Amino acid sequence: MTTQIILLVALCFGLLSLTIIRLLQTKAQAHKKNLRGLNILDKLVSIVKLTQQHRGMQAGFLNGQLNVKSKLLIIEQETIKHYKDIQTLSRQLDPKTYTAIHSEFMQWQRLLDRSGDDADSSFQAHSGLIARLLDSLWDMADDFALTTNPNSKIQALANNLVRTLPELAEAIGQVRALTMQVSNSDRCTPDKKLHLLFALAKIEQDSKKVKQDLSAKSLGQLQNFVDDVRLSIEDKSLSNKNPEIFFQEATANIDTIFSFIQKGFDTIRVELAAKSP
């Protein structure tokens, strides 16, 4: 009887030990998965930013700013490099996610081949690609269990980093590209005016959602940019503005947002390291 009790206790202890080991292994695998996801998200965020820059400069180039051609070529080379880096890491991606990113790369290649585009067509092609990239950014964060992380701090931060902040940057990027078109032309057409006003409203709406993340100074600079563009639309002076002014102001605000995104990814890495098994 005593032997049976000892064997039963040993069995229970063994099962408990096995359960703990499996739990630790699961946590370790989840931790590695989170970190792999962050590394790939870094690449995809860079692609989004570069595509936005390309759209803005291409708008200027197609409206006569030929001096940006060399910068466009540099952006194109950098973007292709990031796509290839993701391709190298493709085994770490959900097959559906990688298929989407590969499709976006092919769309980028087709965009570069559209040499006959006018400024409006180029804007639409770039914006369509960026919209797909933003969807992939969200899907990828979900695939790597960042936006669904059991750690509420990581989950909340990840949601802002892959959705709200990139969408805010995209609204600013659209304003940047459109102001480049208008300030290089003789007037602001009704459709561009409507699009600009919508994008400016989107910026103000999204900036309220992340006011706890960005500094008061950054939010103030962003609001000043919005006010300047809106005033130039209302007093019909936008087509007379120096295109470089709004481009630089928009780029400074976008850089601030993407810098915060990168710092946010680093914060998640630190948080994951603290919780690692």
Describe this protein's structure.
The protein has 277 residues and is mainly α. The protein has 2 domains: 41-140; 149-269, Four Helix Bundle (Hemerythrin (Met), subunit A). It is 83% helix and 0% strand. It has 8 helices and no strands. The protein has helices spanning 2-62, 69-88, 95-113, 119-143, 152-183, 190-209, 216-234, 243-275. Helix 1 (2-62) runs antiparallel to helix 8, helix 5 packs antiparallel against helix 6 (190-209) and helix 5 (152-183) packs antiparallel against helix 8 (243-275). The two termini are 39 Å apart. The mean pLDDT is 84.
SSE topology:
Blueprint: H1 2-62, H2 69-88, H3 95-113, H4 119-143, H5 152-183, H6 190-209, H7 216-234, H8 243-275
Helix pairs in contact: 1-2, 1-4, 1-5, 1-8, 2-3, 3-4, 4-5, 5-6, 5-8, 6-7, 7-8
Produce a short descriptive summary.
The protein is globular. The chain contains eight helices and no strands. The chain is mostly helical and 277 residues long.
Unreliable stretches (pLDDT < 50, length at least 5) are none
Structural class: mainly alpha
The average pLDDT is 84
Please work out how many helical segments DSSP would assign: 8
User: How many runs of DSSP E, i.e. beta strands?
Assistant: 0
CATH topology of the largest domain: Four Helix Bundle (Hemerythrin (Met), subunit A)
| Overall domain count | 2
| End-to-end gap | 39 Å
Give the helices and strands as they follow along the chain: HHHHHHHH
Helix content: over 70%
The gyration radius over C-alpha positions equals 24 Å
The assigned CATH architecture of the largest domain is Up-down Bundle
Tell me the overall shape.
globular
What's the story with the biggest beta sheet?
none
CATH class of the largest domain: Mainly Alpha
Instruction: Estimate what percentage of residues fall within beta strands.
Output: under 5%
